[in-house]
Predict the structure.
Amino acid sequence: MDHFQHRNGRLMAEDVDIAVLADAVGTPFYCYSSATIERHFTVFRDAVAGAGNAPPLVAYAVKANSNQAVIATLARIGAGADVVSLGEMKRALAAGVPAARIVFSGVGKTAEEMEAAIHAGVFQINLESLPEAEMLSAVAARMGRTVAVAFRVNPDVDAGTHAKISTGKAENKFGIPIDTALEAFALASALPGIDPVGVALHIGSQLTDLAPLEQAFTRLGALIAELRAAGFTVSRADLGGGLGVPYAAHAPGPPLPEAYGAMVARVTAGWDVRLTFEPGRLIVGNAGVLVSRVIRVKSGATTDFVIIDAAMNDLLRPSLYDAWHDIDAVEAKPGRMTATVVGPVCETGDTFAEGRDIPAVEAGDLVVFRTAGAYGAAMASTYNSRLLTPEVMVKDDAWALVRPRGTIEDLIAQDRVPDWAR
Ligand SMILES: Cc1ncc(COP(=O)(O)O)c(C=O)c1O
């Protein structure tokens, strides 16, 4: 359930008319609903509340949507943050997430990032290799500090999602092979500055089936037992994120958070650990739409093209993963058409939908891509010297421009031209 619904033929974001926003802000732009963000966080937190030996840490994966207003909305209602770079950590702290609720993940943390995370006092750093454990130990010892760490294990489970966002197969770069975890704990326990307190995993994103998750969690449970039998203390387990969201209204959606929570409670019963979760897409996916205006409709030799003012630089998912986003008209009119919906960028890959049945539109009409709140603005670029997509957030009948459109002059001024290039 989201808060972008037609009322009297006009698409509303909560109580704000999207056509009015488009006139005020210009297109394209992202529009987020704070009510949807809060609802999804609350639903997820409630769904997993009973699992583990203490209230779980729900650490929002900032990568999904790193706008300060989004993070602050979540921080205000108790969310933690899962961050994968110094930039994301600074964003989370600036938005009001306490360091004690921040998990620092990522396969390529630098010494600078480690030092900053330790300095901030994060809840946990998730390690993904033995060399990384050694580097963190050296950094922490030099600072005279000890930091809690979890080893992210690679359980070699096929998450059944798109290959580019599948992270739990043995051949993927993520985590340590699960059968080397005992060795990793032994090494980490002997090193100064790091305190191995737990295990972690994350097998992929946009998962539409609970079975691979259950299989991975079951392997993690066996590992916890094995580690304890070898004399190690395991007090935490981080189950990652990955639960999918519905992208197409006409197709059955992925399992709901309630089903996920019930599975987690069943599989983790008896683990006697505090759990962490790192949901990203689930929290913000359906909380955002990308609003765009039709520039013109053009008849090609084999298909009609609807050329809109949003492009692959604004929403990369269709180009990168052949991802589906439902397309809707902002002002409902009668009639439908079959069209290929494209942006102005000079690549054939700048295609949002091929031969899609969409509401009939003409030049000047507004369209939205639904379920664009996650990995939309966060993956935007200035390719073709297009400006970064502005972002708007609504709350009831109020709205705010939470990231203004820059200017091309600012973009030009960021570059430096040495004398010898003139
Ligand atoms: C380590 C880690 N945690 C959490 C997430 C968030 O995933 P999702 O947005 O699928 O919930 C990701 C991205 O897939 C990730 O790499």
